[in-house]
Write a structure and sequence with these properties.
Helix content: under 10%
Strand content: 25-35%
Structural class: mainly beta
Largest sheet: 4 strands, antiparallel
Distance between the termini: 40 Å
Number of strands: 31
Strand order of the largest sheet: 2-3-4-5
């Protein structure tokens, strides 16, 4: 499939988010003065991703993508945002597929990925341009394109990952496209080929292969990040047992010597690891591994000496499925993970308890990055506004919204969302988000409707002194019961709709025109 068409496919997060139907609406609904979201408003939704803080901390470059429905694709550009003033400047023009902007260590250049070539020969390559904009120079010419890359600390080279070229065949074998699927997905149209690390000089010239073998640094599901040691002598990455998607969890942290190409493992483990990167001083490596070694559990972060060892658990007390990045001090990490119905950040020291980062109204975020001065940038979502770029001067500073791409959408009547909790099968605590259509409120249980007997909570409220904000035990119990009531009713409603839909799909279909029997 054309990657530009595939880019328009929506992505779905596996989060419990239930749309409450109009059957729960109260009988008397006031009309809103603001307009509701319409089909035409989809064209106003802008994608933001991969923010990168400049080494001097003064600006942030971010990928901005907008839909082009005439040509059935999203078109991307790099936008430079001033941290203080919030002003914006487009750095790339007439480049529709830019991605992965990365500042050079010197702050003078900016590298990114974009398509090179035309038609079927077009492949994603690394380009480098001046930090203030201008013409970009292509520095890689990988026949299979580039998946990820990283600057060397001295700014002279770039390490990149590319898929090995297919085996060259001659004679009748040129027409033999049979292959063994193996532990791969059912949509595979050819045998999976390994992805390996290469080096390219920023000044140009032939790229140098650094790793090789039947193992891979990527599959169709995951790609290993590349992390340079501070002295530029080694690169840490995740080595995957094979390029098949079914082996995506068979990863181990490895280090390759840039001068010799020799590769060695960091730990004694044989699977389940994922490299996060070298600490700023190069003395440690952070990586993920399943909690208690059980693949069914979420990942926690370990830190090990760069010279080797199994490492120590850093985030065990958080009890969340987490990932993270080093802070500039090298003594702590910024850790991300789901927490109830929100996505949270924690500042996690290597040898102490984690401290939660206050995100304000931001309920979800993606693509966060840490600056050299400890500043934080992320793409955040609030209850009433689609993604925007947010900036934190430090993990303890309040968020500052730098962009306003969705001003028109935020002004629409989008309804409201409530976080709900309930006890699920097996006694497990469940979290969800209940989304109400605009101007719709849930119908209360009979005992809470006007004219009905006062509940224990209502009686307790009436006994309180004016201005008192205490919640007694009866009130808390009733509020918890009501939250469970709405969650249970919503779930039963949605499951009923699903059963009706599946029953309808199971009905025999009569071809148009009456079928072979000529029926009506």
């Amino acid at each position: 499939m054309d990657p530009e068409r595939a880019a328009l496919r929506p992505s779905y997060q596996c989060v419990v988010s239930l749309l409450l139907a109009a059957t729960l609406a109260a009988p008397h609904v006031a009309l809103s003065q603001s307009r509701r979201f319409e089909l035409a408003d989809l064209a106003k939704l802008t994608r933001l991703n991969d923010p990168q803080i400049s080494p001097d901390g003064r600006s942030i470059v971010v990928v901005v993508s907008r839909p082009n429905y005439d040509d059935d694709r999203h078109e991307s550009e790099l936008v430079l945002v001033d941290v203080v003033a919030g002003t914006q400047r487009v750095l790339t023009h007439e480049r529709r597929r830019v991605s992965q902007p990365r500042w050079s260590p010197s702050d003078r250049q900016l590298a990114f990925l974009d398509l090179a070539g035309t038609g079927k020969d077009a492949q994603v390559q690394v380009f480098v341009m001046r930090a203030n904009g201008g013409d970009a120079q292509q520095i890689t010419n990988a026949p299979s394109g580039v998946r990820q890359f990283a600057w060397r600390p001295d700014g002279r080279e770039i390490a990149f990952q590319t898929v090995d070229e297919p085996e060259r065949k001659s004679g009748p074998e040129r027409y033999n496209d049979a292959f063994e699927v193996g532990d791969n997905d059912y949509l595979a149209a050819e045998a999976a080929r390994p992805t390996h690390i290469w080096l390219a000089s920023v000044e140009g010239g032939e790229a140098r292969r650094l790793t090789s073998g039947l193992w891979s640094t990527a599959t169709s599901l995951v790609t290993s990040p590349l992390s340079w040691s501070s002295d530029g002598k080694a690169i840490a990455f995740t080595r995957i047992a094979s390029p098949n998607s079914g082996d995506s969890d068979q990863g181990t942290v490895q280090i390759v010597d840039v001068a010799t190409g020799q590769v060695h493992a960091l730990t004694r483990r044989t699977a389940g690891e994922g490299a996060l990167g070298f600490s700023p001083d190069g003395s440690r490596l952070a990586f993920t591994y399943p909690r208690d070694g059980d693949p069914a559990n979420g990942a926690e972060i370990y830190a090990a000496s760069a010279s080797g060892g199994d490492g120590t658990r850093v985030t065990h007390a958080l009890d969340r499925n987490v990932s993270g990045r080093w802070m500039p001090d090298g003594r702590s990490l910024l850790v991300s993970g789901n927490d109830g119905t929100r996505v949270a950040l924690w500042l996690q020291p290597l040898d102490g308890p984690a401290r939660r980062v206050e995100l304000g109204d931001i309920i979800s975020y993606s693509d966060f990055t840490v600056g050299s001065d400890g500043a934080l940038a992320l793409i955040g979502v609030t209850a009433g506004r689609p993604p925007e770029l947010y900036y934190f001067a430090s993990p303890t500073s309040p968020p500052k919204r730098l962009t306003d791409f969705h001003r028109e959408v935020a002004a629409l009547d989008l309804g409201r969302t409530d976080a709900i909790e309930w006890t699920g099968p097996g006694g497990f605590h469940e979290d969800g988000v209940l989304t109400f259509p605009p101007n719709v409120e849930p119908q209360l249980p009979r005992e809470r409707q006007p004219g009905k007997r006062l509940s224990a909570c209502d009686r307790e409220r009436r006994r309180r002194r004016p201005g008192s904000r205490r919640n007694g035990g009866a009130c808390r119990r009733e509020e918890a019961r009501l939250r469970g009531y709405h969650a249970d009713r919503c779930i039963r409603l949605v499951m009923g709709r699903l059963r009706d839909h599946m029953a309808y799909r199971a009905l025999p279909r009569i071809p148009r025109g009456g079928g072979r029997g000529g029926g009506h």
